Amino acid sequence: MKFNNGDIIHGFRVTNLSHIQEVDSDAYLMQHEKSGARLLYLANNDDNKVFFISFRTTPDNSKGTPHIMEHSTLCGSRKFPLKEPFVELAKGSLNTFLNAITWPDKTMYPIASRNDKDFHNLMDVYLDAVFYPDCLKNPQILMQEGWHYELDNVDAPLTYNGVVYNEMKGALSSPEAIMEDKAMEELFPDTTYGVESGGDPEVIPTLSFREFSEFHRRFYHPSNSYIYLYGDMDIDETLKFIDQEYLSHFDARNVYSAVKTQSPLPKRKIVEAPFGISENESLEKKTIHALYIALNDHITTEESLAFKILSYVLVDMDGAPLKKAVLDAGIGNDVSSAYGDSYKQPVWTIEVTGSEIDKREKFISTVDLVLRNLALDGIDRNMLEAALNRTEFILRENDFQGKPKGLLYGVRAMDLWLYDRDPMQALKYIDDIKELRNNLDKGYFENLLLKYVIKNTHQVLITMKPERGLTEKKNKETAEKLAAFKSSLSHEQLEEIVESTKALKERQASMETEGALKTIPLLSRKDLKREIEDDSLIEEDLNGIRHFHYEVNTMGITYLNIFFTLYGLKEEDIPYANLLTSILCSMNTDKHSYAELSRLSNAYTGGLGFNVSAYSRYDNSADYTPVFAIRGKALTSNVDKLMGLIGEVLCHTSFEDTARLREILLQEKSEWDMSVFSRGSSLVMTRLSSYFSKAGAFAEQLALSYYYFLSDLVRDFDANSDEIVRRLAEVAKIIFAKSNLFIETIGESGEVSAVKDHLYEIADDLPDGNVYQKHTFDFAEGNKNEAFLTSGKVQYVGEGGDFRKYGFNYTGALRVMETILRYEYLWKKVRVQGGAYGAFTQFLSDGTAILCSYRDPNLKQTLETYKNLPEYIRTLELSDREMTKYVIGTMAADEIQLTPSMKGERAMLHYLNGNSVENRRKVNDEIVNCTVEDIRKLAPLLQSVIDHSSICVMGNEEKIHQDADVFDKILSLPD
Q1: Domain residues for 43?
Q2: Cβ partners under 8 Å of residue 22, min gap 6
Q3: Predicted pLDDT of residue 783
């Protein structure tokens, strides 16, 4: 260990230390003696360094002050007097993570970078932002990021605007978000969890500048802070910098921010709340029932881990007894659970969707009966053991899909640290796993259920009822309230609001001075990595089957990707192929029930995933490879079990159980119903690409078109069940044949040998199949302008086209332009001035060009902003320093640490889309050497997209009808 207990390093006293095997780190807990700041440092050899500073923020109202403060602190500070240093950092940093996050009881400012200089720069900007923000002296920042009255002239309607105001209108558009808000309010009436820290749009406009400023003075002090450092760094210099530049200027003080413990409710509370649906939607099967259970505030890490396992076994695992009982009783279409331990008192939720209002009593009586019987009679030991193995595999693999693992460790540590418990314990799990395994036969999990659920009265049963026109009704109430307020104002007061609106817009549109921009520290192009990793695959033939291997150390885990090309299918078969991804492993096979399959998968593998996708050639979206992919992973010692399981589900799944098939369809339809609006941007972009891209048209069959297909299947299931079974079996037989098969292994020689030895488990049962010619499917293309109606309060506004159709080629400069548009033009026009939560662009090498806004209060205004893009690029003026900044920011995407499985999947992507290492090196050089003139030359390309563009929008029903002239077709979402 580098330090000892009691050591003082630059004002920080070491109060505890330990080597944590689970995260391969030496951990030091420290306290800054002068300021009272807490610090946790995890020392290891990971070059992806992480820093965050968190504050315990415990609001007592729903004005959204923590959330608005999180946005506002990053809008200028003492050392960095720009309007938005955060954006300038995003433009020109090699960060692997850069964000700020508001939780119900804390606010976190995390950054990560693999570059030492960049890491220091990011840390400096964030520390200055939280301790010396400009927002305390400039009310326009609160107006922009939080809320303000907007009035362009005295005769115009008075409205609200603001980034967080509009963000929360979008966030609280879904019934599940509204439900959670209401349930937490009832579950924790006396604590901070009973209010909405993100802000309720109906309450946000009551936040005053005085309250806003006072919130910072109260909570944003070092004595109320939690500083986290992770990775391979010069810790002496880092601590010296934090001490000398920041913490030494503060004296410790008492900050009252403790999260109170809620006294248990004397009995289960039953509440109801409405949520809006569009006028054309049916009320049938739209009700949600959920049981929220609050646990106590001294639950151990072992008990918490056990509860996650318990939740999975009882509800989320295929064959889970509680889920099965609720579905068998006909209470709803889908049952899910969630265990949240990022609260002082963890909360367990059991939720049924696709239900009716009169099913509430049946829901709760079924839940109570099943849980009591399980506690009395015992929980299936095999299911518990399988779930425990699954949990251990996930914890040991630590695969965060490209996110810095050090950041996730820090977030995990905060789950204890924030409540004055030892953060190191949150990172340890080996002993807990061992204890849980020893207790499998001792009634441990049953006693847990009895203690924290059955004997616990701290519960809320909530029913969410659909109501047509509720969103429009609330919009009307807001408009009437604003109109009444406007009529109460004098002409002078109205002019004052007009001037305030004008002044804010002038500030938002103003350019930063060169001097202010230079305060942001910047790397140079010399700091950029120029080499391109050659991720070539080793290819061989295994008894007529193409085998590709990606060589990498996987620490004893075998990653196996199995692909079947889909050239043998007809267009109308594609949705059935996609449906198979939900059915395989979830229906009986000739040998096992679906519940047994789930247990075997959890016991011996790291999971199986199925998906349908299309890999388009990098320079031509009309040339693509459609595949059905199976992704599996297991300890190399269990590869035989993994491959045996895959072979069984591919070749021996029975589709005949129509009751189970109906159950799966209803569950999937319910998941779509609940998530469609929150997935709005990705669905809009996929739909949009289908208008001009063959690969996009294929992908769209798996998106909104699939939602319509699924809805039709569910509606007519009883009449067509035999036909559905026949089609599934027919499509599976065409797909799963040796003639379509190729595989990829990721690992070292041991992994390859294990797969070769057991390949027969899959190949022997596969038919030879027919050899099909490569072709694309004939999905209709053509310019379309479509809108999809929802009860949401904001929009996702997309516009795009194919630039290759008009003679333009892809260059690395397009990636730099994406960065410029995202963090300059679109940021200012759509987010800052328009009030949307965000906007972004996507220019792909196959010719796809898409612009899309996110949680946007506007529609036509955003489309007009897109229209002016070519002129903006044509006349772009940037200094060499600013150009370098955008180049560096663009290259940040290549700094992300890929896991071994991600590296292997990237290699297969490059193989399938033909993107050679030479071509990638060329694009990389074009990025690194990009000039402002290279960007200006892209204006004609942009103009071609805008001149021949299509439009796709998903959003508020009322807003879309107001702007109906934009669209050729206005559609309702499936019912």
Answers
A1: 8-258
A2: 395, 427, 428, 429, 430
A3: 67
